[in-house]
Amino acid sequence: MEDPSSRTAHDGPPGQVARGGSDSETDVTREIKTHFRVCRFIMESGVKLGMRSVPVATACELYHRFFECVSLRVYEPYLVAMSCVYLAGKVEEQHLRTRDIINVSHRYFHNASAPLECDREFWELRDSVVQCELLILRQLDFHVSFRHPHKYLLHYLMSVKALVNRHAWTRTPVAETAWALLRDCYHGVMCIHHAPQHIAIATLYLALNSYGVEMPVGEREWWQVLCEDVTKEDINAVISDLLQLYDMEAKCV
User: Fold this and answer.
1) 128 vs 251: CA distance, rounded Å
2) DSSP structure class, residue 9
3) Contacts 24+ apart (CB under 8 A), 23-32
4) How far apart, in whole angstroms, are the C-alpha atoms of residue 144 and residue 136?
5) How many CB atoms lie within 10 A of CB 165?
6) Contacts from 160-169 at CB under 8 Å and sequence distance 24+?
7) Dihedral, 69, 70, 72, 77 alpha carbons, nearest 10
């Protein structure tokens, strides 16, 4: 595997166009595209490593919070991502071996290659991952434990399931869609800019509306009953940001 620490922050993944991109793109757009691709790398690596959904979410949030503080031009994003996966495993008590993270990352960029040998290149890369982990901890002042929307969404799904028509619930994949929408939120900085309860409500709201599942009518909206401090504006803001991420995904293909 090519040592990510040896690549500049302007480089994209092997086989993709460098971040220089089109002249019509702004620096901000190029950075958003880079972060989107790197978070997709984190998620795919997490699946191959057998990570649970919350540790993967923590890895993505660590990545986003780190680059909220530093410039993408200074640090190699894929090396930071590998270190975030390693650190997230510790934070969420799903410990991962650095060798496994490095080999999965190597296969991500070189699909047909064999695992790396434990040679000088491997140990240098391992040291880079560990040193980058310490840098992330210092940059975030060791605040690496986050509240995620996952537990809220689970609670909201159980509450909504008890309210809607049983047949309408069983014939539509509302729960699966809401979880998928929540996972997609972590491709961008929504986890930083929105409250976890609001993200959970918004993804459930979008899933219900997508399948036309009707909720009982009462004095208050169902989402106000579940989360008193959320407003329609909060829900619309989350959905707007999520739709922008999907637009970004089409541009990253």
Assistant:
1) 31
2) T
3) 31/72, 32/188, 32/248
4) 9
5) 12
6) 160/204, 160/208, 160/215, 160/222, 160/226, 163/215, 163/216, 163/222, 164/213, 164/214, 164/215, 164/216, 165/214, 168/213, 168/214, 169/213
7) -80
Q: Read off the tokens for 70.
A: 């530093």
The answer to whether residues 57 and 186 touch, using CB atoms and an 8 Å cutoff, is yes
Whole-prediction pTM value?
0.86
- What's the CATH architecture for 150-252? Orthogonal Bundle (1.10)
Structure tokens at 226: 């579940």
Where residue 253 falls among pLDDT bands split at 50, 70, 90? low
Residue 225 CB neighbour total at 10 angstroms: 14
Tokens of 148: 């995620």
Domain ranges, ordered by start, for the chain: 4-139, 150-252
Output the CA–CA distances (angstroms, integers) from residue 232 to 177, 187, 237, 240, in the order listed: 20, 23, 9, 12
CATH 3.20.20.70 fits 4-139, yes or no: no
Question: Are 89 and 55 in contact, with CB atoms under 8 Å apart?
Answer: yes
Residues in the chain: 253
* Equal fold, 4-139 vs 150-252: yes
* Separation between Cα atoms, residue 212 and residue 46, nearest integer Å: 33
pLDDT digits (tens, 9 = 90+) for 157-204: 999 998 888 888 889 999 999 999 999 999 999 999 999 999 999 999
Higher pLDDT, 121 or 64: 64
Q: How far apart are CA 186 and CA 38, in angstroms?
A: 11
